[in-house]
Design goal:
The protein is α/β, with parallel strands linked by helices. Helix content is 58%, strand content 9%. The longest helix has 24 residues. It is globular. The termini are far apart.
């Protein structure tokens, strides 16, 4: 009973009272593996030393001094049962994982590292430390893990633990003990391939820390370099899989698809069935993001069959959960609910600790569709408190809007916009879409414009959360809602038309009903919704055209979000800059970016070369530039991209992984070259060392200003992010809803 002096003392007092004729009750509380059973056995030995009989049931005959041990105290044992035993002179020792009954409670604590070392004599200190970190010091799990260490393993066991121990954290939650162990392993001198595996796992385990994207990127970059140098296909496959998990770049769906093909090919060469299944699952996710749900479903079936082939029951459960998502997308609600129940039951059978979470999002999305959104708000806010930085409060805001609490939902747009625009991760695109949905009900035009610009690069895609545990409709639908809010009726109609075409192609009837209602086709929307047994989706608030943005009188619920002044001011006051913008006022210390910003604001709509901006005006001449790509070359690139798109589609559908990876790699390289060569409005970009330095420095300086503005003037920051365009040429193109003019 190492480390249990306090507990044994409490047991002795209980037994001494029984010997003296005083009954008593002590309830020992602790999680499984905390040592409750061992303490009960020790209590039985101490009782026998005192001449006390030991019973293990409330039904045992007899009275007078004795010890009654009740393992795993259950609901059937009542307070009256315990009182009767105590009045009869018994010392009652009960164990439970949850405190109950009005007896004295003794809460077990984990062992300290020194106490665990005493319980594991002869084990190296580093290995003891690893066991303590991985088990939090709970004696049962610690002794089980220590028993699995091969004799003579020494300090090598630390790295093995770091690479193979399952995480105690769930998705987006940190297992701090495992993170610390991985940090320890990463600090050691390791072979390159082993170090690559340690680094990429450390990056993945840090996904739940929203403040660590730069750190994750550094770890992943080094891991990929080491893995490629190792020339070990299994190591590279593991690292590429870890990179996709650790970075979750929402813009990289094409790269995710090509990387999935690489993982499948490498894992097959290495004979690693687990990694092959991971590659198949990434393939499913990427295809869903790109809007090809038929191909995604085929990839999901391939993943499930691989799991069946390899005897992995968890793969079948995960595949069922995603089939529930696809059923929900297509409006097959009874099937989705039946699959959700099956997933929960099957998950429990195979020992998936978070089986319910696999379908919680399906149930939540179904509640939104059926008009039961209000009941989801409390759950989502509780998740936001437990997992800060992962945008659950944004989905809560959507639930508020869906339930008709528009004013409260719009306040959340004001609160959350800066953090969402600056965010990243597996929930980011879904969060932007949810906030866009709320904003369409009457947020400030500056906020709507900022969200529109954030979503525009994803036009044509579907809003996929994380590993496709939720698919929330076409990005085009959300763009249409924002364009309508901004009074851009032609753009809104075009976005809605594209969304409707995509939804019809996918057979996504619930989405189709919602988009038709937003587009104004209420009769069609009502017909589809009634056929699905859903309430008719609400249309959009009436909005004026772009030249006359909606006002508070047009939409009273949006009144609090308007800046409230037609003229915004930016001026110097000694070493400070002052901003006055309606209800927002800020004073910030002078930095170079403010000078660049004032130059742009003074010439709205005009392009200013990076060199001119850096020089404070026109006239700075750099070295003669040379074109990156001429017109003929650009046309050839684009023709080849079209050819590759067709060839990739054929390869994807025929399952030719190697060919698909080849086409995807070529396509990514061509796109990167075109992006590098393209300037504002499609003009050919030119090389100039001075101009490039000016562009980089000015862009950084302006971003620094916007970052400083966000916490003190979020509406101004959002407007400027939507309005200031950077590149070889800079431009302030005022987004709708900003000031009529700037006073400088």
């Amino acid at each position: 009973m190492i480390g249990r002096r306090r507990e044994l003392a409490a047991v002795r007092r209980l037994l001494d009272g029984a010997v003296a004729g005083r009954g008593g009750c002590l309830i020992v509380v602790g999680p499984p593996g905390s040592g409750k059973t061992a303490l009960g056995d020790a209590a039985a030995d101490l009782a026998r030393q005192r001449g006390l009989p030991v019973d293990r049931s409330t039904a045992a005959d007899g009275a007078g001094p004795r010890l009654v041990i009740l393992d795993d105290l259950d609901q059937a044992t009542t307070e009256a049962d315990l009182d009767q035993l105590v009045r009869g002179g018994a010392a009652v020792l009960a164990t439970t994982v949850e405190a109950r009954h009005p007896c004295q409670h003794l809460y077990l604590a984990p062992l300290t590292e020194a106490e665990l070392a005493a319980a594991l004599p002869g084990m190296p200190n580093g290995t003891v430390h690893a066991v303590w970190l991985l088990t939090a010091g709970w004696p049962g799990p610690a002794l089980d893990l220590a028993a699995a260490v091969p004799p003579g393993a020494g300090e090598d066991a630390v790295v093995e633990f770091a690479l193979t121990s399952p995480s105690r954290g769930q998705f987006l939650t940190l297992d701090t003990g495992l993170v610390r162990l991985l940090e320890d392993a990463a600090s050691r001198a390791l072979p390159p391939a082993t170090r690559a595996r340690v680094l990429v796992r450390l990056a993945g385990e840090m996904l739940g820390d929203p403040s660590a994207p730069a750190r994750r990127r550094e770890l992943v970059d080094e891991a990929v370099r080491l893995a490629r140098d190792s020339d070990e296909p299994g190591t590279l496959a593991e690292v590429l899989d870890g990179r996709l998990h650790a970075l979750w770049d929402p813009a990289a769906a094409d790269e995710r698809l090509s990387t999935a093909s690489q993982i499948i090919d490498l894992s097959r060469r290495a004979g690693d069935a687990v990694l092959e299944r991971r590659g198949l699952f990434w393939r499913f996710v990427a295809l869903a993001e790109l809007g090809d749900l038929d191909a995604a479903e085929a990839a999901l079936v391939a993943y499930a069959r691989a799991g069946e082939r390899d005897g992995d029951p968890e793969a079948a459960v995960i595949a069922l959960s995603r089939h529930a998502v696809l059923a929900l997308v297509r409006g097959r609600f009874e099937l989705a609910e039946a699959l959700a129940v099956e997933v929960t039951e099957a998950g429990r059978r195979v020992g998936l600790a978070d089986a319910y979470r696999l379908t919680a999002s399906v149930r939540g999305r179904l509640a939104l569709l059926r008009g039961d959104a209000a009941g989801e708000v409390a759950t989502l806010r509780a998740l936001a408190r437990r997992l800060p930085g992962h945008f659950f409060e944004v989905t809560a805001a959507r639930a508020l809007a869906e339930s008709g609490q528009i004013t409260e939902a719009l306040l959340e747009v004001d609160r959350l916009l800066p953090s969402v625009l600056a965010g990243a991760g597996p929930r980011w695109l879904g969060a932007v879409a949810d906030l866009a949905f709320v904003a369409s009900f009457g947020a400030a035009p500056t906020a709507a414009a900022a969200l529109y610009d954030a979503l525009l690069p994803y036009a044509g895609r579907l809003v996929v959360w994380g590993g496709a545990n939720t698919i929330a409709g076409p990005v085009e639908d959300y763009l249409g809602r924002l364009a309508a809010r901004l009074g851009r009726s032609d753009e809104a109609r075009a976005h809605f038309d594209r969304a409707v075409a995509q939804e019809k192609r996918l057979g996504a009837l619930p989405w189709l009903a919602a988009t038709l209602a937003a587009r104004g086709d209420r009769a069609q929307a009502a017909s589809i919704a009634e056929g699905l047994g859903l309430p008719v989706p609400a249309g959009l608030p009436v909005s004026s055209d772009e030249t006359s943005p909606p006002t508070a009188s047009d939409n009273p619920s949006a009144a609090h979000t308007e800046p409230g002044a037609d003229v915004w001011r930016l001026g110097r006051d000694g070493d400070d800059w002052i901003i006055d913008a309606g209800t927002e006022h800020a004073r910030l210390r002078d930095v170079r970016g403010f000078h660049f910003l004032r130059t742009l604001l003074a010439a709205p709509g005009q392009e200013i070369a990076a060199l001119d901006l850096a020089a404070g005006g026109a006239g700075l001449v750099g070295s003669a530039p040379g074109p990156v790509l001429d017109t003929e070359a650009r046309a050839a690139y684009r023709k080849r991209l079209d050819d590759l798109a067709r060839q990739m589609d054929v390869a994807d559908r025929t399952g030719d992984v190697e060919l698909a990876a080849t086409f995807a790699a070529e396509r990514s390289a061509l796109l990167a070259e075109l992006r590098r060569a393209a300037g504002l409005g499609g003009r050919t970009r030119s090389h100039s060392a001075e101009a490039e330095r000016a562009r980089v420095n000015a862009t950084r300086a302006l971003r620094a200003v916007l970052t400083r503005l966000e916490p003190v003037a979020p509406i101004v920051a959002a407007h400027l992010r939507a309005s200031v365009h950077t590149g070889s040429y800079f431009r302030y193109q005022p987004a709708a809803g900003g000031p009529t003019r700037w006073q400088l």
